[in-house]
């Protein structure tokens, strides 16, 4: 059965390492829903978080194939443990002055924030898991979304692991 | 003037000379580092971006470079050298087209897990990314077909990178590693400090020693099995595990089939050996796999040419898979007992534990009967030469002791079927990628690795024309390769598929216009011989064997011969076309 998995990959911070990882997904036909890359807790290493879909066997292959890359240090399937997964979205939404209180209501409910105000629009920043951001987007759609930018998911296992 | 005392060239003294810390160029560092890695010969082709490297070779007699006539020839030669010797093969090419001409050879080595270090020049670091003359992003292009690659940005990193590259290429599941050296890096001066032996690669720890628990399961499974079968592949040869495999079979008395790349891993004369499995394998091997209740895969990767239709492959068998690459286990065939480790190590750990498979006597009898009833066969003729007969002749006249390289196609399958290998590293063929043009240059490399052995290169008349320029290398270096051409004037394997699967719609397979191969050989200064019947064939081949240097023998054979048995694509491997012989 095909399900969604969140994988963290610790990699050497080397030129081309993103290409090695994304290229592997591409040529072996694995899906990438989102990919984020940044520094990790250790100098010289980056952490990538990839959200992918696939069945058990595909996931096993993804992990094994990733380990074959010399620059990959560690692969962690976050989805098997309780995890915190977050992404950030910036949403530029049409907002004539008359509609603004209503939009502000939505923003507050989602604990999102308005980070910029134009004469005819607002820029909303929302942080949360993927479903929360999906919901926020749905609610803002009726006003007219002019631009949307999502970071993709970054995630971590809860607790002392 | 006193007489000159010849320099003593002991390895120790040479090493000391190469290791001397001096301020030298990146190019000199490269050459010295290669020598320190034990490189005996390098195949290559110069060009703009590697001029400093070739300049460093000038007058440097310790370094042995073979100039090929095409970069593809260089890399296939390095590949043949690596497969025949077990050492890392090395080739050098310039940037841009030089580098891209290596791509086929890199992919060939990658698919067959051959250790290569591939060195390419690139434009200067200041020009990278500007679409400079002869610039190509070769590390990017080859990412999917290399085990690892480096773009050297700082000359100080060169010794470490070269040492790492050799380590990565030659350990774990072996494979090609590319080092791309920009022109300014090969020119830059720095103090040479040889790399220490230690390699620090956090993300690379191939697992050599298997999990003992899984070994115990296998030992038990062998005891329980009534119809056990071994499927051994190239991993046996690459790990140096052929003797351990022999011991394993001797102890367990389990019948064994060896894949195309596994030929030579087990003596073909042994009564438990059933031949090759798969698309053009023996009837016995395929039926045995299909009937087996325990299939022990030792260093093979369940390639589609071996398994046929996956759904229906070895339907009754408990699957055991021994492989150094964990990603191979469960990739194609669900596995019951996974054993990750070096084949030789695994077998040496297993051997003291395993016993004779005691419940398999009826099975052994059945295997012997099948072997007798269903050998490879063909309809011989006295009017036309049959390709199978030629391979049998090659085998008989050399006692199966030559190194045989092949190109790709029908002749490759006939060579695999009718040449009886008894030693590892004697059969050199492009199995995974199926690269035409591989046969001749790989033979040159194999001969460089084993100057004392007889090397036969078996080619079709199609593939022969893909790298025939390397005959020049044979001539100029007197490399005594015996080049056999199984000349049927068509692209035979394509013709066979078009006959059997595409209703005799023969599309673009006629090789009319091919050169007269005898004249072609002579044009390069190589002896050329031709045979069109058995008598001529015996005579020409005897002459070829007696000739000290390289020889091309053009065997003109019947056009419409097919390779049998055959499993067509999409069938399970017990659905075999046996031909009419």
From TrEMBL, chain A:
State the similarity comment: Belongs to the acetolactate synthase small subunit family.
What name goes with this protein?
A: Acetolactate synthase small subunit
Subunit structure as annotated in this protein's UniProt entry: Dimer of large and small chains.
InterPro entries recorded for this chain?
Acetalactate_synth_ssu (IPR004789), Acetolactate_synth/TF_NikR_C (IPR027271), Acetolactate_synth_ssu_C (IPR019455), ACT-like_dom_sf (IPR045865), ACT_dom (IPR002912), AHAS_ACT (IPR039557), AHAS_small-like_ACT (IPR054480)
**Coiled coil residues, start to end:** none
Q: Mind telling me which GO cellular component terms the entry cites?
A: cytosol
User: Pathway, per Swiss-Prot/TrEMBL?
Assistant: Amino-acid biosynthesis; L-isoleucine biosynthesis; L-isoleucine from 2-oxobutanoate: step 1/4; Amino-acid biosynthesis; L-valine biosynthesis; L-valine from pyruvate: step 1/4
**Native organism:** Paenibacillus mangrovi
Q: Which CDD domains match?
A: ACT_AHAS
Q: PROSITE patterns from the xrefs?
A: ACT
Known catalysed reaction(s)? 2 pyruvate + H(+) = (2S)-2-acetolactate + CO2
UniProtKB/TrEMBL annotation, chain B:
Domain (Thiamine pyrophosphate enzyme central) spans 215-350
Domain Thiamine pyrophosphate enzyme N-terminal TPP-binding residues, every copy: 25-139
Name the domain of life: Bacteria
Top EC group = transferase
Keywords in alphabetical order, please.
Amino-acid biosynthesis, Branched-chain amino acid biosynthesis, FAD, Flavoprotein, Magnesium, Metal-binding, Thiamine pyrophosphate, Transferase
Q: Which Gene3D superfamilies match?
A: 3.40.50.970, TPP-binding domain (3.40.50.1220)
- GO MF term set: acetolactate synthase activity; flavin adenine dinucleotide binding; magnesium ion binding; thiamine pyrophosphate binding
Q: Which cofactor does it need?
A: thiamine diphosphate; Mg(2+)
Pfam families the record matches: TPP_enzyme_C (PF02775), TPP_enzyme_M (PF00205), TPP_enzyme_N (PF02776)
Thiamine pyrophosphate enzyme TPP-binding domain residues are 407-555
Q: Which InterPro entries match?
A: Acetolactate_synth_lsu, AHAS_TPP, DHS-like_NAD/FAD-binding_dom, THDP-binding, Thiamin_PyroP_enz_cen_dom, Thiamin_PyroP_enz_TPP-bd_dom, TPP-bd_CS, TPP_enz
Q: What is its EC number?
A: 2.2.1.6
Catalytic activity annotated for this protein? Answer: 2 pyruvate + H(+) = (2S)-2-acetolactate + CO2
The cofactor note reads: Binds 1 thiamine pyrophosphate per subunit. Binds 1 Mg(2+) ion per subunit.
Gene Ontology cellular-component terms listed: acetolactate synthase complex
Tell me the Gene Ontology biological-process terms attached to this UniProt entry.
isoleucine biosynthetic process; L-valine biosynthetic process
Associated pathway: Amino-acid biosynthesis; L-valine biosynthesis; L-valine from pyruvate: step 1/4; Amino-acid biosynthesis; L-isoleucine biosynthesis; L-isoleucine from 2-oxobutanoate: step 1/4
Instruction: Report the CDD domains cross-referenced here.
Output: TPP_AHAS, TPP_PYR_POX_like
Q: Show the SUPFAM superfamilies listed in the entry.
A: DHS-like NAD/FAD-binding domain, Thiamin diphosphate-binding fold (THDP-binding)
Record-stated family: Belongs to the TPP enzyme family.
The name on file for this protein is: Acetolactate synthase
From the broadest rank down, the organism's phylogenetic lineage runs: Bacteria, Bacillati, Bacillota, Bacilli, Bacillales
């Amino acid at each position: 059965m095909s399900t969604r998995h969140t994988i963290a990959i610790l990699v050497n911070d080397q030129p081309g390492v993103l290409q090695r990882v994304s290229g592997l997904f591409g040529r072996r036909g694995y899906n990438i829903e989102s990919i984020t890359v940044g520094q990790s807790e250790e100098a010289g290493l980056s952490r990538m978080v990839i959200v992918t879909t696939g069945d058990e066997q595909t996931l096993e292959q993804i992990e094994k194939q990733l380990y074959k890359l010399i620059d990959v240090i560690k692969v962690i399937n976050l989805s098997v443990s309780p995890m915190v997964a977050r992404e950030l979205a910036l949403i530029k939404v049409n907002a004539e002055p008359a509609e603004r209180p209503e939009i502000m209501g939505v923003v507050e409910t989602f604990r999102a924030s308005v980070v910029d105000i134009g004469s005819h629009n607002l820029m909303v920043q929302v942080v949360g898991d993927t479903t929360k951001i999906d919901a926020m987007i749905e609610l803002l759609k009726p006003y007219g979304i002019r631009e949307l930018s999502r970071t993709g998911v970054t995630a971590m296992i809860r607790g002392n692991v | 003037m006193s007489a000159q005392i010849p320099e003593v060239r002991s390895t120790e003294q040479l090493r000391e000379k190469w290791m001397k810390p001096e301020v030298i160029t990146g190019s000199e560092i490269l050459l010295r580092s290669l020598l320190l890695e034990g490189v005996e010969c390098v195949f290559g082709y110069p060009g703009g971006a590697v001029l400093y490297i070739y300049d460093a070779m000038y007058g440097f007699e310790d370094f042995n470079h073979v100039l090929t006539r095409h970069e593809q020839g260089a890399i296939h030669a390095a590949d043949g050298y690596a497969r025949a010797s077990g050492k890392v093969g090395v080739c050098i090419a310039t940037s841009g087209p030089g580098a891209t001409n290596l791509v086929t050879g890199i992919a060939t080595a990658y698919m067959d897990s051959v250790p290569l270090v591939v060195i390419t020049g690139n434009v200067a670091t200041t020009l990278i990314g500007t679409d400079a003359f002869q610039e190509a992003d070769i590390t990017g292009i080859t990412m999917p077909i290399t085990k690892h690659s480096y773009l050297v940005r700082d000359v100080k990193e060169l010794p470490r990178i070269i040492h790492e590259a050799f380590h990565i290429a030659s350990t774990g599941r072996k494979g090609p590693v590319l080092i791309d050296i920009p022109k300014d890096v090969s020119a830059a001066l720095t103090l040479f400090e040889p790399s220490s032996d230690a390699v620090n690669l956090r993300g690379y720890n191939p697992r050599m020693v298997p999990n003992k628990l899984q070994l115990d399961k296998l030992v038990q499974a062998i005891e329980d099995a009534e119809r056990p079968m071994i499927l051994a592949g190239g991993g046996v040869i690459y790990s140096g595990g052929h003797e351990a495999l022999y011991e394993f079979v001797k102890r367990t008395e389990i019948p064994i089939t060896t894949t195309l790349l596994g030929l030579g891993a087990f003596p073909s004369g042994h009564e438990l050996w059933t031949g090759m499995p798969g698309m053009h394998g023996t009837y016995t091997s395929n039926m045995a796999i299909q009937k087996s209740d325990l299939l022990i895969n030792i260093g093979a990767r369940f390639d589609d040419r071996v398994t046929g239709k996956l759904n229906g492959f070895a339907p009754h068998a408990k699957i055991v898979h021994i492989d150094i690459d964990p990603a191979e286990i469960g990739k194609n065939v669900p596995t019951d007992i996974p054993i990750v480790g070096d084949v030789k190590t695994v077998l040496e750990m297993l051997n003291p534990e395993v016993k004779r498979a005691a419940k398999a006597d009826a099975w052994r009898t059945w295997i012997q009967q099948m072997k007798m009833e269903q050998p490879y066969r063909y309809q011989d003729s006295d009017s036309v030469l049959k390709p199978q007969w030629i391979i049998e002749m090659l085998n008989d006249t050399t006692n199966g002791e030559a190194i045989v390289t092949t190109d790709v196609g029908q002749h490759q399958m006939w060579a695999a079927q009718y040449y009886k290998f008894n030693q590892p590293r004697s059969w050199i063929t492009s199995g995974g990628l199926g690269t035409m043009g591989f046969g001749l240059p790989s033979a040159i490399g194999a001969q460089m690795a084993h100057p004392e052995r007889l090397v036969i290169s078996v080619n079709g008349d199609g593939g022969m024309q893909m790298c025939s320029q390397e005959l020049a290398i044979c001539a100029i270096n007197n490399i005594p390769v015996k080049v056999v051409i199984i000349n049927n004037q068509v692209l035979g394997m394509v013709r066979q598929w078009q006959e059997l699967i595409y209703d005799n719609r023969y599309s673009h397979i006629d090789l009319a216009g091919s050169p007269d191969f005898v004249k072609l050989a002579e044009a390069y200064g190589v002896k050329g011989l031709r045979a069109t019947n058995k008598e001529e064939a015996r005579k020409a081949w005897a002459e070829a064997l007696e000739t000290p240097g390289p020889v091309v023998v053009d065997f003109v054979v019947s056009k419409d011969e097919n390779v049998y048995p055959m499993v067509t694509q999409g069938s399970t491997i017990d659905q075999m076309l046996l031909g009419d012989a």
